[in-house]
Amino acid sequence: MTTQASPDRRIQLLFPVALASLLILGTARIILDSLKNNRSQFLWQESEKHRVVRLPINISGDEIIPEGCNIFEGQWVWDNVSFPLYTEESCSYLVKQVTCQRNGRPDSNYKNWRWQPNACKLPRFNALKLLEILRGKRLMFVGDSIQRGMFDSMVCLVQSVIPEGKKSLQRIPPRKIFTAEEYDASIEYYWAPFIVESNSDHATNHTVKRRQVNLDSISKHGREWEGVDILVFESYVWWMYKPLINATYGSAQSVQEFNVTTAYRLALETWANWIETSVNPRNQKLFFMTMSPTHLWSWEWEPGSDGNCFNESHPIERPYWGTGSNLDILRIVREVLKQVKIDVTLLNITQLSEFRKDAHTSIYGERKGKLLTKEQRSDPQTYADCIHWCLPGVPDTWNQILYAHLIQDYRIL
Fold first, then answer.
1. Is pLDDT of 380 > 90?
2. What are the phi and psi torsion angles at 46 (to 5°)?
3. DSSP type of residue 103
4. Which of 123, 188, 325, 347 could hold 140 in an S-S bridge, CB 3.0 to 4.6 Å?
5. In this predicted structure, what is the pLDDT of residue 328?
6. CA pair distance 146, 231, nearest whole angstrom
7. pLDDT score for 253
8. In whole angstroms, what is the distance from residue 297 CA to residue 181 CA?
9. Per the residue annotation, which of 221, 295, 360, 388 is the catalytic one?
10. With 70 as the cut, is the pLDDT of residue 24 above it?
């Protein structure tokens, strides 16, 4: 014999279900309110197969850059306690081109300078927090060998907190891919010295003297950038070989000589058009890094001298802007970014890097894939590399600034 529950009994049975539902909804509301109030940050990403749930990221007050503070204006201060952020020995991923001390550099002071903005402090780099931000995501650096140095720096900054066997580095030209397996995250580098396509796009076998740029062609590169969560672009040094550059525009068969600044603007406009047609601003975040300065002529910071960055051991401690940084190019970058309809964050690292005449690889790096010989090192006027940077060194500060932007971004990337 069956009996039917009375209405009162049914209400009693439904009450726990309703209460549980209210508790779930209430918990969700608390989390959403917490997100809105920026008390803590819960990041997640919807993937095709599953939802990647992230751990809370607690952001303290001293990690927030105050509104109105220009982090690109400041000075380098000596800090041999908290810097460098890693060592050559602790990062096996460094290439010979940047391991200056291992290559024979007798001094190490270049590692111990910390960038101090005038009106605030940069947050100290926290690898675990960055990896949480990158969980389930791809961070890609795009550009030339200067940008490759920034990639190498970032890998060294995060790799020490990842257990052995849970990290790997692949070289798949024109890309390098560092993977943090437990975070389902990758830090990547893509070789594109002009951003647009050129005859120098082969990652290892690229022409230096006979450069030709396709100013309105970017689709081949763009296919590799589509869907990347965080893109950091840079392009400068390869443009500055001569005042004129061979290029095509409109017709792939018609090669003409362009003034470099004209060609650069056309290339950047092609890149900007790709951004507006191919980037989803809700899911992707973009940065553009300004020019990395060179220190080829010591008379610029020491009148009457006839050297370069070789044997320099201290930063410049007065207002300084060298001829290695082209103001016309900087102006073009600002103008094009201002016109782009999608937000691109400008990382203006040029001025702070201008002071660091002491931090280049000089004679303690590679030339054409080989360390300099004893005879070459004895001729720094010819062989000193005053373009690339030692690691640890200045590119670590660039990444610290990138980290400061990412840690403050409360949007879902």
1. yes
2. -85, 120
3. T
4. 188
5. 97
6. 15
7. 86
8. 45
9. 388
10. no
Query: Which of the following is catalytic: 34, 145, 217, 278?
Result: 145
Is residue 17 predicted with pLDDT exceeding 80? no
For 353, the token pair is 């890097």
CA distance 311 to 307: 9
Residue 409, SS3? Answer: coil
What pLDDT is attached to residue 51? 45
Buried b or exposed e, range 316-347, using 16+ CB within 10 angstroms: beeeeebebbbeebbebbeebbeebeeebeeb
CATH assignment of 46-408? 3.40.50.1110
Residue ranges of alpha helices (H) inside 203-347 are 219-225, 260-278, 327-339
User: How many Cβ atoms from other residues are within 10 Å of residue 120's Cβ?
Assistant: 18
Q: Residue 300's CB: how many other CB atoms inside 10 A?
A: 18
CB 287 within 8 A of CB 231: yes
The alpha carbon dihedral of 241, 245, 246, 249 has a sign of positive
Alpha carbon distance 177, 193 (integer Å): 18
Could you give the CA distance from residue 317 to residue 161 in angstroms, rounded to a whole number? 35
- Do residues 264 and 321 touch, judged by C-beta distance below 8 A? no
Copy the structure tokens of residue 108: 């190490």
Q: Where are the domains of the chain?
A: 1-37, 46-408
Please give the Cα distance from 327 to 166 (Å, whole number): 44
Q: How many residues does the chain have?
A: 413
User: Using the 8-state DSSP alphabet, how is residue 62 labeled?
Assistant: G
pLDDT tens sequence across 252-272? 889 999 999 999 999 999 999
Q: Who contacts 221 (Cβ-Cβ below 8 Å, separation ≥6)? A: 142, 190, 192, 195, 196, 197, 201
Residue 145 designated active-site: yes
* Known active-site residue 201: no
Question: C-alpha dihedral over 123, 127, 132, 136, to 10 degrees?
Answer: 130
Other C-beta atoms lying within 10 Å of the C-beta of residue 370: 9
**388 assigned to active site:** yes
**Separation CA 359–CA 353 (nearest Å):** 9
Contact 192, 148 (CB under 8 A): no
Per-residue DSSP letters for 8-56? HHHHHHHHHHHHHHHHHHHHHHHHHHHHHTTSSB--EEE-SS-EEE---
Rounded CA gap, 174 and 170, in Å? 11
CA torsion through residues 155, 158, 160, 161, sign: negative
* DSSP single-letter state for residue 238: G
| Active-site annotation holder among 144, 152, 229, 385 | 385
